[in-house]
Every structure is written in C-alpha cells, then in structure tokens.
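User: Please predict the structure of the protein below. I'd like the answer in structure-token form so I can feed it into my own downstream comparison script.

Assistant: Understood. Taking the following sequence of 843 residues as input:
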Amino acid sequence: MASSRYSFPSKPTANPKAIVTGGKGCSHYRFTVLTDRLIRYEWSEDGGFEDRVSTFALFRHFDPPTYVVVETKGGLEIITDHFHLTYDKKKFSSEGLSVKVGGDVWRYNGESYGDLGGTARTLDGAYGRVNLEPGVLSRKAYAVLDDSKSMLFDHQGWIATREPGRVDGYVFAYNGDHKAAIKDFYRISGRQAVLPRWALGNWWSRYHDYTASEYLEVMDHFKCEGIPLTTAVVDMAWHLVNIPPKYGSGWTGYTWNRDLFPDPDGFMKELHKRNLKVTLNDHPADGIRAYEDQYEAVAKALHHDTSKEEPIQFDCTDRQFLDAYFDVLKLTLEKQGVDFWWIDWQQGTKTKIPGIDPLWVLNHYHYLTSKRSLKTLQRPLTFSRYAGAGSHRYPIGFSGDTQITWAGLEFQPEFTATASNIGYGWWSHDIGGHWAGVRSNQLAVRWVQLGCFSPIMRLHSTNSLWNSKEPWNFEKDAHKIMKDFLILRHRLIPFLYTMNIRASYESEPLIQPMYWNHPDAAEAYTVPTQYYFGPDLLVAPVTSPDSATTLMGGVRAWLPPGRGRYIDLFHPHLVYDGGRYMHLHRGLAQMPVLAPEGTILPLDSTPKLANGAPRPTEITILLVVGKDAQFELVEEPEKESQHHHHSSSDDDDAVQQTPLSSFVRTPITWSQAEGVLTIGPEWNGSGRWRQWTVKLVGHTSTDVQAQVPGFRVTREDGCTTVALGNVHRWEPEGFEIALGRDLQLDVVDVEGRVFDMLHRCEMMYEDKDPVWDAVARSGDAVQERVERLQKLKVDASLKNAVMEIWAADGRAKGSAKGHEVWADTKGGAIEGIEEVLKDYVIV
C-alpha cells in the first residue's frame, strides 16, 4: 500500500515552446506563457528553476498560446491578446517587472493578490469575520499567486523543499472573467475530487465523553425522529485522554478508552449496521507514547528502543515514521472499523525541515492512503483543515471551532462562497457553532438552514453540559424546523451529487459568489452573504435575529437581471421580478432560496428516508415554469468501485478519474412553449422502475392536465403537484408529460399577502390601520402611498416587509414595483429614497 501513497498523476514540466528564459551572472529569469491570460514568472540567482510538483502546481504542460517576445539588450516584453509583460532583466522589482492587463498594471512585490478573497486555515476562536488569504479572482484586471514558498514533491512522490531565494509565481490576467480564471487554476492544480454520495448527507458530531451505548442511543433517536444520517463522527474522547502526567497531555491518542468503549470493534460494527460511516478524531502532534496499545508494534517497525519508554515522536518529514503511522498504527484501527480520519492539526506550520508544513503532509498522504478503503468509502476521503492553494484536492475541509454568535453565522456564507475563489469547494463547518456564545433557538435554526444549503452538513458542538445540537433538545417549533431541514438535506442528495460531478468535471464549485455569474454587475459585489447554489438557485440565508414586530428575519438580496422572474421555493406565494435589490423577510420556518423561471430541481421523495444515501426510487421534480429548462441528473456508476483504475489524462487530479461516460445520467427537459416535460432516457443505468412526481412551484392558476394514465393532481401551498406513478427508466425516447402550453407563475395577491403578514405582526392594533390604509387605498397614487408608509412611526422591518410584497411582482394589481423604498433597519436613513422618489411616475 505504501507505494500507492506516493503515486499521483502530475505533469509538472512546462512545454518548451511556452518558455522564455535568459540571464547571466547573478540574475536569471524564466517566464512560462501557460495561456494567453496566465503567465508563470521565475527568477533565480544560480540559474536553476523549479520543475518539480508544488502543492499548488501539478500540471504545467499546456499547449502554448500565441504570444510575441520583444527583446532588447536591457529589456524584455511578452505580449498576448490579454496582457503585456515588461521586464528589465534584473532581479525582480516593482520598477523592473510589470504586467499590464486591461486598464490595470501589476508591479512585482513578492506577494499574492486577489482582492475578492479566498479562504483561511481556520475559524478557531473567531467571533465573526476573519482575514482571508487571497484567491485568484480580483476586482482589478489581474490576480497573483506567489508560489515561492510552497512545499514540493520529488519524482518519487516524497516531500521536498525549494532552493532558498528563488522566486516563483503566477499572474492571472483574466480581467473579470472569473470562471475562466478558476478553470485554468484547476488545470494547473488538479480538479476538485468527486465525493462519495453518502458524504453529502447529514453528519453527527459532538465533542463529548460518550459511552458506546450513549452514542448508539443518539443514533437510534435520530432514526425514531425520521432524521437520516450518513456519518458518525467520534471526537477525541474515543481514546484515552486522562493519562499519567509523565506522558504529557491527552490530546493525542490511539488507545481506545475501554471505560467508555469496552468493545470498540462491536461499537463500530453497530454503527455500520445502522448504515453509518465512522470517522475518529486524530490530533497527531504528540506521536505514539509508551502507554499506547500499539507502542511496541510501531516501535518494532521503526527499530525504536522501548526500554526507557521514550516516546516515538511525530515526524512527518521522516518517511519511515509516516509509513509506520499509516501502515501499522492507523491500519490496525481501520481493520477494527474506522472508515476515514478527522485530522485535527492545530500546531502551526513548522517541522524539522524548514518549508515543510505538517498539515500539507497529513492532508496529502491521508487522502492518498484512503484509497485502500475504497470498498467502504467508494471514493478517497479525508477530513482536515485548509493548508493553502491546492488544498481542494483533499476534501473534506474542516473549518474549525466557530463561536456561537450571530456574527459567526453571518460571516459563514461569505467565507464559504469566497473559498471557491481559490477552488476550495467542500467546506464542512460546525453547524450551529462550536463553543461560547449563547443558547438561542433562533440562532440554532438559522444555522441549520444555512447548513442544509452548505457543501457539507455536519452538526457539532463543544464539550459542554448545555451545548448540543440534537433537534429534540430545542423548543417545539425549533425542533420541528430543524428536523424538516435535516430531512430536506437528504432529499437534496440527487441534486447535490449531480453538482458534485459538475464541480469536478466542469470546474464549477457547488457554491459560488454572485459575481462569478455576473462579473460586470456592480451589485453582484455588494451581497457577500448571498450565493449561487448550483447553476440556478440563489440562497440568501437569514443571519440576524427575527424582528419582534414581524416575527420574521430580514435579508437584503440582489436579484440579477436576465433570468426572468424568481420564485421562493419555501414561500411560493411570492414572485419577484429580477434586476434589482429586494429585502426578503421570512418566518423562522423558511429561508430565502430563490429559483428563476426555467429551473428544474430533483428531490428524493422516498416517503421514509433511511440512513446512508441510497439512490432514490421516488423522485419529485420541482419545476419553475416561465422559461425552457433542462437538468441532467447524474448518479454514480452502477459498480462505483470498478472504476478507480482507469488510466488518467494529464489533467486528472490526485486520484485517477472515473470516465464521465460511465456515470448514470437522466436528462430532464421542459419546453415552455409546448408545455411538455421529458424525463429520460436513462443512460448507463440498469433500467429499473422509478416513481416520478412533478411539482409546479408557484403555479396553481391553470387546470393542469397531464396526459398520462393514472396521474393525480393536487394543489396546496402555492404549488401544483402531478403524481405520475412508476415510469420505466429505459423508455427509449424518454417519457413525455404534457402539462399545458406556456404556463406562467401565479400573480401575487398583494392585498391578501400584506393582510396575512400584518395580521401576524405583534404591535399596537391601532398602528396596523395606517399601514393597511397605505397599501389598500387604491384611489391614491402609488407614489403617495409609498411616501405615506415611509413616514409612519412603525418598525422599519415592518415597512420593508410590506414593501417586499407590494413591489415583488410588477404584474400584480396596484404593484409598487419601480417605487420600492427600503427603510434602514439599523436605525439610519431610508435606503435609496431620494433616488427612488425622483423617478416616481403618478399612476
């Protein structure tokens, strides 16, 4: 096994036709024109340059683009259609090396630059916001990734260090074409790995001294609640923690605590019986000490003298130690039932060899070693912290110990989205927050809602008598909502697995900042907590407490133009015209998840969801009518484990890729004009029957007649559901359902919606009348009534909640679209009132 741990695809030596090099004496340079928008720059005193793999760069052999070199005795220029490099042939300096891109000029300064942010190693100790390392995207026309200090791998796949003093970096000259920049980032660094289906479900984790029976009891309670799980995380109390002081601290440990887990093999067998994967926490820094069960076995492998009970020091720069760590210590535990490891490295970036970061070593070799567990895992996997550019190859990321504060929640969606700016798509956060802060039903619910629409959904909390995330430990309403969102997370797995394949094969992370799809829209850069979840869904999580008046949480969102109208999947009574900001308000049971016209979202609608993540036998298609739509449902190959030994192309990542052609695929298309939904045919599948249902979200206004035998139509909560029954998945031409030509989203009933909302508001009864009068007195011009509403001495959040409904749908009778004015709920001026009032038209 050890040999495959040191083997991964790479092609680090650049195409000679892309290289411009020269120099003399004590100054030598090399430029590699990787694409017409991406250039590598290198300088050395000794004339040597780096062709080994770095933690960032695995692949540097690209077909050379068209470029021009202009060379004089004292200078050099390299010109492509997108950048113009100027260099004085001396040691790199801000005066001597520059790259002009569009209207911006980068001058060398030895630092990375990407002002849209990337991510960070950890959220440990963060009250809210933390400083982000740069990504490779920028508001300027360029971004820079300085790779001069990164760790290397030699030709045998072992760690190596750089020659000191050499400069090595990359200029990304993409001028706002963010997606193209990320695609080329992945071309150099390797694509995102594909996750196994089960990793996309609910994980349970708690830092707590569980006994085996207690832990299994919690798992069984989840089952009784009807909440499915896939992953059982056992934090550090699985091993001995209270050890004799002569051995040091108990943070590191590999010996089961038999007082808590008298039969570890039996305990993990019981978890597996419940269809759960098992991961154990490992703080490896203190090595293997004399009290450990495996001390003698590891010592024997390393020829370590045990007579004085000297500890076996953790040393990731020693290949023999690493082999014993994996192939003696960890393999023994894996044979007992451990499926994968949660690496909890918190001890900094230093090792015996300068420039070698232990976190990088742990992530890289744990991930590759996990290939020996493919029979269980289906895909290689580790669970650890972010180490820097290139870390996306080793999912899944653990973001650290978040404080339980509203500020911590508010930063998390931004932190997750900007991680995509450095290609890092699979963060797992402590959902609900880890430690400190306050107990709050509202905060817990809003965090679980965010978790449902996060890359990984892992409930977690610290070692506290009072702090745990079991939904049934919260008040009745909060309990039900948390349960509903945890169930929804598993219903989303067909969509999430498809996005998982898209992330790897199409360089499109699941979560993307708004500006990825709208780089030229200034508004896209002003909504950091809002993000794309897949190609269509806009998620704007509520990250602040609910208003005491409206009993709703509010969030400012931007609805991009060009996608038609939007419907909220949780609140389909409201339809929004795009191309503007909106303030969205939702009660605790809902969060804003907006889908534009022409959206298809497949959900697992199996009545009782089980642990694990089996392929669904029943699927409900959420369809947003109004525009043509298409979605290709992708599922793993019928025999996943057979597909890990195909030869890989030069661009493959650290594990050889399954050919895309081997995945099971089911196209789903909607023709708006014809009103026909087509499901299938399924490719590469076994052709089993599957039950399909179609739910028209936000459409109830026509008498849908599905032309299939035995269909059943129901209408409720602003949706029309058409149950189609069993459909064979190998219908040769697919399966067509005619639902009605040119169906449209329902028109918002402004007065009805405002009345319902105002009725629920907790406020003085007499104060409701003037609010209602402003909306419902149709004899007055909309402008006058909007102004009257804004002058009322009522809660600002109430004004905005009224405004949202009133202005949502321009088709609605008496709509205030074009007249929307938003009160500042933080107590400042009204947002945009002067701007809006000057454009009023009397109606």
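That's the full token string. The first strand starts at residue 19 and ends at 24.
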